[in-house]
Inverse folding.
């Protein structure tokens, strides 16, 4: 990922956001939207995991079948 015209901090923020979305989405997909199980695998407590979902606009319902 090469972003011209961004500061280091801006580029880092974008990279972290992309990582978070991909990581959390893969956990939710693996656990079929089960937030508790996904949080356990991420070694986060459930409330922090939910905060991470909200901050990235991810709805766990969309991963349930």
């Amino acid at each position: 990922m090469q972003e011209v015209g961004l500061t280091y901090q801006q580029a880092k923020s974008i990279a972290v956001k992309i990582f978070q979305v991909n990581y959390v989405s893969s956990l939710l997909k693996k656990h079929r939207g089960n937030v508790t199980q996904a949080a356990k695998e991420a070694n986060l407590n459930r409330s922090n995991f939910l905060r991470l979902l909200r901050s990235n606009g991810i709805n766990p319902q969309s991963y349930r079948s």
Notes: The helical segments are 8-30, 35-42, 46-55. The chain is about 65% helix and 0% strand. The CA atoms of residues 17 and 40 lie 21 Å apart. The chain has a mean pLDDT of 95.
